[in-house]
Write a structure and sequence with these properties.
The structure is a homohexamer. The first copy, chain A, is α/β, with parallel strands linked by helices. Chain A is 43% helix and 21% strand. Chain A folds into two domains: 122 residues, Aldehyde Oxidoreductase, domain 3 (Alpha-Beta Complex); 148 residues, Aldolase class I (TIM Barrel, Alpha-Beta Barrel). In chain A, β10, α10 and β11 form a beta-alpha-beta unit. Chains in contact: A-B, A-C, A-D, A-F, B-C, B-E, B-F, C-D, C-E, D-E, D-F, E-F.
Amino acid sequence: MIYSLLIEDVVRRALREDVGTGDVTTLATVPADIRARANIVAKGTGVVAGLPVLEEVFRQVSPDIKIKFIREDGAWVRPGDILCEIEGWARAILTGERVALNFIQLLSGVATRTASFVELVAGSGARIVDTRKTTPGLRLIEKYAVTVGGGRNHRMALDDAVMIKDNHIVAAGGIAAAVKRARNAVPHTMTITVECETLEQVDEALIAGADVLLLDNMDNETRAEGVRRAKGKALTEASGSITEETAAEIAATGVDILSVGALTHSSKALDISLDIIETYQDLS
Amino acid sequence: MIYSLLIEDVVRRALREDVGTGDVTTLATVPADIRARANIVAKGTGVVAGLPVLEEVFRQVSPDIKIKFIREDGAWVRPGDILCEIEGWARAILTGERVALNFIQLLSGVATRTASFVELVAGSGARIVDTRKTTPGLRLIEKYAVTVGGGRNHRMALDDAVMIKDNHIVAAGGIAAAVKRARNAVPHTMTITVECETLEQVDEALIAGADVLLLDNMDNETRAEGVRRAKGKALTEASGSITEETAAEIAATGVDILSVGALTHSSKALDISLDIIETYQDLS
Amino acid sequence: MIYSLLIEDVVRRALREDVGTGDVTTLATVPADIRARANIVAKGTGVVAGLPVLEEVFRQVSPDIKIKFIREDGAWVRPGDILCEIEGWARAILTGERVALNFIQLLSGVATRTASFVELVAGSGARIVDTRKTTPGLRLIEKYAVTVGGGRNHRMALDDAVMIKDNHIVAAGGIAAAVKRARNAVPHTMTITVECETLEQVDEALIAGADVLLLDNMDNETRAEGVRRAKGKALTEASGSITEETAAEIAATGVDILSVGALTHSSKALDISLDIIETYQDLS
Amino acid sequence: MIYSLLIEDVVRRALREDVGTGDVTTLATVPADIRARANIVAKGTGVVAGLPVLEEVFRQVSPDIKIKFIREDGAWVRPGDILCEIEGWARAILTGERVALNFIQLLSGVATRTASFVELVAGSGARIVDTRKTTPGLRLIEKYAVTVGGGRNHRMALDDAVMIKDNHIVAAGGIAAAVKRARNAVPHTMTITVECETLEQVDEALIAGADVLLLDNMDNETRAEGVRRAKGKALTEASGSITEETAAEIAATGVDILSVGALTHSSKALDISLDIIETYQDLS
Amino acid sequence: MIYSLLIEDVVRRALREDVGTGDVTTLATVPADIRARANIVAKGTGVVAGLPVLEEVFRQVSPDIKIKFIREDGAWVRPGDILCEIEGWARAILTGERVALNFIQLLSGVATRTASFVELVAGSGARIVDTRKTTPGLRLIEKYAVTVGGGRNHRMALDDAVMIKDNHIVAAGGIAAAVKRARNAVPHTMTITVECETLEQVDEALIAGADVLLLDNMDNETRAEGVRRAKGKALTEASGSITEETAAEIAATGVDILSVGALTHSSKALDISLDIIETYQDLS
Amino acid sequence: MIYSLLIEDVVRRALREDVGTGDVTTLATVPADIRARANIVAKGTGVVAGLPVLEEVFRQVSPDIKIKFIREDGAWVRPGDILCEIEGWARAILTGERVALNFIQLLSGVATRTASFVELVAGSGARIVDTRKTTPGLRLIEKYAVTVGGGRNHRMALDDAVMIKDNHIVAAGGIAAAVKRARNAVPHTMTITVECETLEQVDEALIAGADVLLLDNMDNETRAEGVRRAKGKALTEASGSITEETAAEIAATGVDILSVGALTHSSKALDISLDIIETYQDLS
């Protein structure tokens, strides 16, 4: 519902960027009375995400365009799978094509990468979450793509949860002081996460009443001990350059959460194309 | 100069997205009178791009921040290399950190990928150019990063050059008709590119007076023949899923231009971090 | 620091609204080379809040204006107290006057009302917090004024914490189901508040693992029992038409939090004026 | 008609402020296919104002919502009176509820306060008008609420009428000079108001050709004499901290206009709530 | 002072429109370290207007640019006259040139046309005023240019004065009814103008208490009679396709005001150019 | 299609500028339930341009308005010709009237002027194109009006083609160097125009590979020789204060293009009015 307000902005910006003062090629070569049918088709294998964004792109280019969804966000697709069918003015379809594909390829890439991590930790009870390492301007839709891929979201921004890192600890004069200052300043509805690099810090953070412990830069043995100490008192989160190679092992330490920057900062676009099926003159 | 106007917008949007109503952690834990010195340090190997964007991020967070550049955009860096030194209020540095890094990691990733392609075709005379497959909202700075990596830019948007693809050809009733319509509609300052999938189309496009031939979906032998026919009459461009594996061979066909979507839609972020070196109270 | 970005917007909007295409009276009657000194003076008794907003108003009208603060946000002032001294072009001071006063009168009204509630519950251990019943468009600065008055903030918006009310409970099929759905959907960094109207609901919410119980529509005896049951398991919050008459008694039930809509929806502006002390021609 | 353009902006801003990236509670607990019927119900006594703004709020949240108005702006309502009935998706109604109520409570508060002043001066021939002491960002709708309450509007902003106050008089070198300068500078369609604190100033302003005299800081006897002198030559306006206690007496002096800042800067919100009547699953 | 806020917007829009993603020619051919001195020079004869807008253009392109004004807005200039001297980075001066000239040529054209009308009615006591027939988006600065040319402004927009035309009269059921409705609806600070096409309407409008009579579509003899009847009771305004040929005669009827749409909708740009005097490398 | 996005902005800005907080006259005098039929009628002779913009104006004022087009953009009209018929709420039609007319009068003026130039060079083979000397903020629609009048467009902005002028040549160290720098910096899809003031420069530019030669400040004999030398190698463009008096002779030199600033900076508005045909009460 209200999400659409935010998608509207990001799509409008993308269209202005790509279309500028007009798609000169299409306006010059395609008569105004030609209609077209087209399919959005997967060319690679992965989890599709972003169909509502694609729909918004075409809606903004031409309210007249009709889209029939064959697959929905979250579906696994293989090369050749049709994601949706589009019908409308040929000019509008050609003009919106690139922006629509840029969005859905990016978001499907994020969802696919997320699904791969989720599978790697399946059975461990750990959840895969995103980070703030998102593409500037696209955080909301990238975080949406993470959920489509089976992941969960971390905080959205600097304003909705406390995360005390080493520099904050130093500036505040220790973990206890930092947590206390934060608890006294922020709404009672906010949680506090404390980054811990040693087991001593784990103990300090637990005594200080942290809600979540970020177990960073630890070997997995130490991390497992940290998890043990926190059990029942705080959630535990592992972070820091987690890769497909290391995810399963880290999950095996019993941490509740693996936050993975690579979901959003280094995903590969899923190849998806728009194929024109038919064009015809509208004689009406 | 005027570029800054556009960077300003994209940076402001990113800061609003990440900071929201305020960095609650930093405001609660770091006193207002603490200053800090920090370094931006490479953690991976690649071509750095985006230092002016990073500078704009910190300028918007706090006009007081001073940045001393040690390396410049275009420099190859290795793990441990310091890119720049930052000095200012600790709160401002911590609040701007993530957004600044998100930009520079993304852009350095694009520049690094570009440099790799440029190296692969070195000596062939072909240029590596980008496409419109850019991240929505970030086209201008991503295209800038391509030039930093030694690549060149293709058209910026749908409004600044004609590119006639298969669907336009069908709609216009052939290559000759499409080129003629376009030439009659667009400013005399615009060039016309025609996508050719066969040598017959190459001949048609040359007769029609195309400025650039996009030799798509051809084996390299056919492409080389297309290049030969176009020599002295039109530029030639190869396109379509060009990879590190295929670039050199394609360049060897003699095409003038290789346009590579992967430069911008599937680059891996270059790992870069912000390390606080020192904090101290400002007693003034 | 980054707060200024948000204040900038709200102030710009207010100035556009009040100044429109220009302050015709001042432009017509006050020569451009007249400078003035003025004081911002309290005409009523209360807690001053909003001096940084007032400063931003004058900064936007004329960067040249100098302001010397005599009192700071949070100070109790009485009629005649000077809050700050202003020096600059007479035209700018007169043009910015009304908007500056509108802000500071409103915000000081909020801070004063808050301080009054805080005093009423002093010693009880309960904190006074605001609600989402703020003036549309001014939430952030009104919530700031609440903290200036000694209050604390509740969640900022619908996106930063879960608050399950009766309609959500009904729709989800009970408290347990609602909490479970929410826990599975939102980031692990978010807390969940559940509105309880009976002690049965208190028990259900505690079993479901709610972080905060909103004890609404209860007599104080029942509320005290709810607090007793929640002790050590969840925070407790009283809400709903809390007035100066009822606040102390409610606080005596032991609740951790009293959320008071009246802080922001029904405060009386604190009377504050701008007095021109001197005008003189700038002969330079 | 065009008013809607302005209401749109102010409502959009309020929704962005309150909903942020999404109503996490409702999205998590209320299924997408649940519809609801709700009533907007008065909990206090007063003049309702702002129903079109409430309608715009729900329209922006979900174009699908239907509203049936039972009362209209300007109606006196008592606790229990239904103002309108709402039908639509449950999620949309719950998400828009707070913003809709914030607007209508504020505006009804203004209208109610205005009606009270209007009643106090009934029969005197004087009109109650607002001032520029409005809530920053909401001037237009607050001034609308004043008219709903039976009051009239003063100038909208600094750009649509001349109002010469003491500082302008000093800067221009007297009333005559100030009026002359203004008459020579502003469009012939603008009127000139002069603030007079003594009867000498009244005479000067009348000779200078002022259209309206603002009789400020005068006892009522002097004010009555000022009114007598101005009769047939200029309108007279009383201003300055007019309260419910003093309004009738001031009106009895014969002034044409009482401008009352309290209408907008210190009104108490009228208590109004949204009650869900029924929810049901949409099986279509 | 606050005017600058509005000029800022209109200039930013113009720069975005003309510079787009960058001045590719200048960036490619002019090294970054070249500075230049340039003059703004009149190539035609007329009244210069818009120097502050020109200054804002260059300020936005590069804050470093220095401008020394030789002439000021309102000065009559002849071919060869230097209006101002500019010094700064060569790139910035070349990039801002066209937008700066577009503004100053347009505004000087308006001022010059105005001055010509003012001269034609000199001695008659009538004032030349503008209309709402301004260039969309540029009303404020065009109305400013009218004052620079010695003209005066009419109302700024539909919201700051009442002007009752034939269609309003018909809809309201006559002049008396229309004036009464308006008087009862608008602030007491607004004046009412009534369009009169016959002497009967003049009498009606005077009885109804109109502040200004718009004597439209009358021969000058009738208009003079209308002026006579209105004398001392209302201002009189002539309107409707007033040209340089007819202005003096119309003024001779004794009307107070001639409103001339041609000032803004059909002025010829004054020819003004930017001449580079010198360029040099900045070795610092 | 996407053009509408840009027209939307420019129309919204114009409406805000003209309507402000509301059309006070119409709201006061015209009842809400009156409907009207009106015609848009030519009062002068020329080429009509801007009907889609007029349509957008009324659409924004009231989505309910119906417009039936009698003539289309590009039609020659004479006094009395009806361009379109409008039906809708009387208030909306009266409120939108001025803005709609301001647009269509301006754009029809541009189209008419263009048509006059096109006719003057008919048969010569030369095309009439516009320049960047457009009204700030209206470039896109003015350039559209040029095409409606039979002209063609030059580059849209500084970012879509290279145009090397004297200052660029000096800064780069000669034509050859300037062209080379530009060719190496800009996309291969961009053309390069070089301004030539002598035949030597023509030769240099041709050798350097310029795509277009701008033959400026030449007598027609020299220009004709320039054209001869460029034939088959580059397009030729004449520029610089081309008037109706000189256009035909310049075209006779054989240049391909005449770029005429006067099309957009000095056109006279075409007189067009809105006539109310009928008003009636809507009893539904």
